[in-house]
Amino acid sequence: MKNPRVVILGGGFAGIECAKAFKNKAVDVLLIDRQNHHLFQPLLYQVASAGLAAPEIAHPIRSIFFNQENVEVLMDEVTAIDLTGKKVIAREREEPYDYLVIAMGVKTGYFGKNEWEKFARGLKTLDDATAIRRDILYAFEKAEACDNPAEREKLMTIAVIGGGPTGVELAGAFAELARHVLRRDFKNINTNEAKIFLIEAQDRLLTMYDPALSDYTRKTLEGMGVTVRLGSPVAELKEGEVVLGNETIRAENIVWAAGIEASPLTRQLGVETDRGGRIVVDTDLSIPGHPEVFVAGDLARCLDQAGKLVPALCPAAMQMGKHAAKVILEEIEGRGGKNYDVRPQFRYFDKGSMATIGRSHAVAESMGMKFDGFIAWLMWLFIHLLFLVGFRNRIAVLMQWFYAYVRYRRGARIITGLSGRLK
Amino acid sequence: MKNPRVVILGGGFAGIECAKAFKNKAVDVLLIDRQNHHLFQPLLYQVASAGLAAPEIAHPIRSIFFNQENVEVLMDEVTAIDLTGKKVIAREREEPYDYLVIAMGVKTGYFGKNEWEKFARGLKTLDDATAIRRDILYAFEKAEACDNPAEREKLMTIAVIGGGPTGVELAGAFAELARHVLRRDFKNINTNEAKIFLIEAQDRLLTMYDPALSDYTRKTLEGMGVTVRLGSPVAELKEGEVVLGNETIRAENIVWAAGIEASPLTRQLGVETDRGGRIVVDTDLSIPGHPEVFVAGDLARCLDQAGKLVPALCPAAMQMGKHAAKVILEEIEGRGGKNYDVRPQFRYFDKGSMATIGRSHAVAESMGMKFDGFIAWLMWLFIHLLFLVGFRNRIAVLMQWFYAYVRYRRGARIITGLSGRLK
Q1: What are the two backbone dihedrals, phi and then psi, of residue A209, each rounded to the nearest 5 degrees?
Q2: Which of A187, A393, A415 sits opposite B35 (nearest CB)?
């Protein structure tokens, strides 16, 4: 008898955990991703701010499964899903499935203003991160050679839009980059004069956290030299300009950390999605009416046991990936039978969440407790090191952080990919 | 009195050593490079073969001089040199000089067949290296998904053109990548079947070395699974095809390590150049008729004290850079006066040369002695670690090598920069 075939779309945290859960089971797994690597997304901001090299936070998906015989990995882009014919259509092939796990994650979203994309880069991929790093470092190079004070000020201004964890982490890291790391390198400009704006539409940063932590975050960032603009929705974006209600910020570099959206693929499925394109799933993570199709990770609009929306965080994605595998395995192994009513429900175990603000500052919430300052930063450091995939990455990253911490240096401040673009 | 102004073009080994030699001297130095980083070129092949991450072999030029007050660094591209007006013209500015040191190095050259560039990438910059890495890793991904045996064979074939040190190092590293590092990752293809060709027009590899070492190199490479073609000048290059005399090799990836040439800038100077565009210099490294202009590094066509051509090697470049600074300083400090006849001559101290063939194999020649095998590899390792600029790089590189050596893994096998190019 042929093994049931599970196709997993996406090699992020949900997809990887899902595939791992089939180890030593009578299931054939095909994992498809358009990248060849699993990305440790929580540290992507460190690549964008020249703290880490791109390969240090990524791991080839294949090598994660090199000793799991029943997982095949395919690097390809999925262009459509045929729910009726039970197959996935990629660029050059069709792959039939018995079970499908959609775990493709989300991409940067501009609230429908797609024309803003060319003025403000999002941060979702390694290419995004190295492009942000290149553009910011290059702006300082141009400032060093610039005689016009207004132009120099613009070159030395970075605007980060969105006061969630990514925006906070980026703004903090950029401030440290300018004020500590680059300070000694430049002789004409004073990098302490670099302006970092963090722009948030709502009236506080990190709105998912306790207001006291939002306040701590704002004060810490301001202490680091970041200008925080709250209650300031972006009215207009132009080349090098962010227009707020009554203020226009001229910034050579604008980074967008304000929104995400699902791939257009989800809207073509003909199933219920929310405003952001996330797929509404049942309590077992399957799509209503399609018990053989599951959604896991950021792409799933899913309520937890308390009726609260499950957040778009790594632990949630991992738990969802594992859960989808569990439901599939129970069914295959005949425990749940085809009785969908008795399928196990997804229960979200909320380990809490954390955001780092800079060198030795962070905020964290876990199990009803709040942490800030150095202790939160140590927690953050410890947890992120534990999570990093692969021995080599863990040690190399620890070493670099340690060195950067002691010496205030960053090793990865290299401008690449400029060929023919020097201007 | 204003300090004399020395403009140095190029932040390679020659330019950096030259600028360093002016430390604490009454000279204003301006160093111009189109990149923001100094590149440890001898290890570039390791980035191309996924052994190291790009930032690990590069160092921001600025940070090398952060504590040398009299050095200014400008990231810009030089478009012309006005020898009569004594100024350098960059994209947006002109920089006058009292002394000029041209140390821009060379680029990949195709013996006048510039149309070959699009079929066979050279290896001179970090962008070259990451592009080669991407294309080779991606070819294996495509092979894994390919059902056509002939097509699969082509996807798994890499042709390296040029049997000098770069070609030898690349071929060895690609063989190890396919046969050891990637072997466990792929399930449909057997990466042991990957074909690596090393193509050399002359009748032996590493022609600058003793024939016994050339022979050892060929045998070692063949033992690693590299197919070596000697006496095989390339007749024609096409998309995915290398045509030799009586053989056509179909290879998805073709890397060009066969030639270098000077930037067209040198031909516009109106001074004597050799066939490759290298500038013919006097025994003091100045350009005949222009005692205030020096050439250092690969761009200089220079004879040593014995009348032998100084080779294009790092130690030679560093010695030349230092020498140019010495001549300038003697003149400024009044020792040599304006009497060009008494300028110190450049004396090349030949420390020898070495090339690594792969994991624990290398060849070296020094002071009339020849080395091969593991001992040569240890020498190579030791010398390259010593040379690497910057503490952080040294430790990180050592650690990764150690890990790669023990576990046969490579940390940097990440495909980036493919956006919208998946096909």
Answers
A1: -100, 170
A2: A415
What is the residue-level pLDDT of chain B in tens, covering all 423 positions? 789 999 999 999 999 999 999 999 999 999 999 999 999 888 899 899 988 888 878 888 998 898 899 999 999 999 999 999 999 999 878 999 999 999 999 999 998 899 999 999 999 999 999 999 999 999 999 999 999 999 999 999 999 999 999 999 999 999 999 998 888 889 899 999 999 999 999 999 999 999 999 999 999 999 999 999 999 999 999 999 999 988 999 999 999 999 889 988 888 899 999 988 999 999 999 999 999 999 999 999 999 988 899 999 999 999 999 999 999 999 998 865 555 567 899 999 998 889 999 878 999 998 888 999 988 988 888 787 766 545 445 556 565 555 555 555 555 666 666 544 443
**Chain A residues within an 8 Å CB radius of B390:** 411
Task: Name the strand (E) or helix (H) holding B355.
Answer: strand B353-358
Q: Residue B5 forms beta bridges with which residues?
A: B28
Q: Which of residues 99-138 of B touch A (CB under 8 A)?
A: 125-127, 130, 137-138
- Measured between beta carbons, which residues in chain A are less than 8 angstroms from residue B66? 184-185
Distance CA B50, CA B39 (A): 17
Residue B297 token pair: 């590094």
Residue A200 is among the residues annotated as catalytic for this protein: no
* Among A56, A73, A418, beta carbon nearest to B53: A56
pTM recorded for the entire structure: 0.88
A402 touches chain B (CB under 8 A): no
List the 279-308 stretch of A: residues with Cβ below 8 A of B: none
CB atoms within 10 A of CB B369: 8
- Chain A residues inside the 8 Å CB shell of B417: 127, 417
In 3D, which of A97, A73, A77 has the Cα closest to residue A87?
Answer: A97
ipTM given for this complex: 0.85
